[in-house]
Specification:
By secondary structure, this protein is of the alpha/beta class. It has helices at 26-34, 51-60, 72-80, 98-107, 122-135, 149-159, 182-186, 188-191, 196-199, 204-219, 315-318, 331-351, 354-359, 365-383; strands at residues 12-18, 40-46, 88-92, 111-114, 139-141, 166-174, 225-233, 245-252, 257-263, 273-279, 282-287, 293-298, 304-307, 389-390. The structure holds nicotinamide-adenine-dinucleotide.
Amino acid sequence: MLIGEKKIERPLRWAMIGGGRTSNVGYKHRLGALRDNTAYELVAAAFDIDEARGREFAENLGVDGSRSYPDYRTLIQEEAKREDGVEVVSIATPNSTHFEITKAALNAGLHVICEKPLFFEVSEGEEIQKLADEKGLIVGVTYGFSGHPLLLQMRQMVQNGDLGDIRMVELQYTHGFNATDAGDKFAEGQKWRVDPKIAGKSFVLGDLSTHTFFMSELICPDLKIEKLLCDRQSFIESRKPLEDNAYVLMHYTNGAVGRLWTSSVNAGCMNGHRIRIIGSKASIEWRDNQPNELTYEVQGEPIQTMIRAMDYLYPECNEYERLGALHAEGLPESWANIYLKFAIAIDAKRRGDQETLDHLVYPSLEYGIEGIRWITNCVKSADAGSTWVAYK
Ligand SMILES: NC(=O)c1ccc[n+]([C@@H]2O[C@H](COP(=O)([O-])OP(=O)(O)OC[C@H]3O[C@@H](n4cnc5c(N)ncnc54)[C@H](O)[C@@H]3O)[C@@H](O)[C@H]2O)c1
């Protein structure tokens, strides 16, 4: 169980790029990184495209104004001159900027924690992989929903054969907040999401389904997609060619099959992860609006609800337990868990502790690249008239 004690020798000197006052996701990064007060110290920032607003915000959060920078280049350059300069940066800017900022940070010897979807092209991911390896640096990806402890219970149940052979994977991440085009016109954080130059080749496939896809990889590490078929729609015409709804069918190499639905036009839906794994003996199902409960259905037996933090769960699940039974956990703890794992990975990399790195289950660069591969294949299939495409 985690009770906030330090896991690494001292907090990492940390900066944020993007994630300023008006951003959707910035606070979640700070919630995750600073929750335990032992893994990160926020010492610098280039929070905002608007320099004055960024500085005012940084000072409000207690960052020294002289270390609030107008842009990421100045941050990297000025921090490199300091003995106590930053060691790790988080990138929470719109998608089109991720690649160039990651590359610049790695070249300056900084570890990187970057938002999803990581980059636009798999080749960019491979270039960054090579650079990170050469420099001995970690790149983590903030699949922020993936730190819920019960997802690790699901992983253990699948790996231990509790479900039998895995036959079907049912994935859903949908909401209805873009059922009209109001946000596309007026909301700072939505306008760029439907602009291919900034968002990339997809809207909801990148914005939403990369989370769910990673969670399926986390739960079923042995399932590899052989081929997929994607059908994508733009119910709001002005979003074309970007989709606001998509269905994907998957065939896995071991004969299992899967289905994913992602949408931001599922009117009336306020939160929307649902993951159901169906085996030859039993099924498990988890939803993010009830993250403390896991449904376990054994064929021919009464349905069971497993509750977070209970002793009957696998130790690998309870290792990332924070509050104990009786008290509900949610998204902040999920983010804190993935940020803690990034810190453990960075610390292990610096110490050359390969064993820790080999056993740490977290959203690493490899999974960020898989997210790009997923989007690329889905778009390729959809744009070829929804035909099956070989995955690799
Ligand atoms: N992991 C998650 O759960 C999650 C949730 C939401 C968004 N995201 C991702 O986070 C990223 C940001 O999304 P958002 O919704 O917060 O966007 P947003 O538009 O709401 O906020 C972007 C922030 O970055 C700043 N910014 C923009 N360009 C910048 C630059 N070049 N340098 C410094 N700051 C810059 C803006 O001023 C703003 O503060 C996207 O890649 C998105 O896909 C992830």
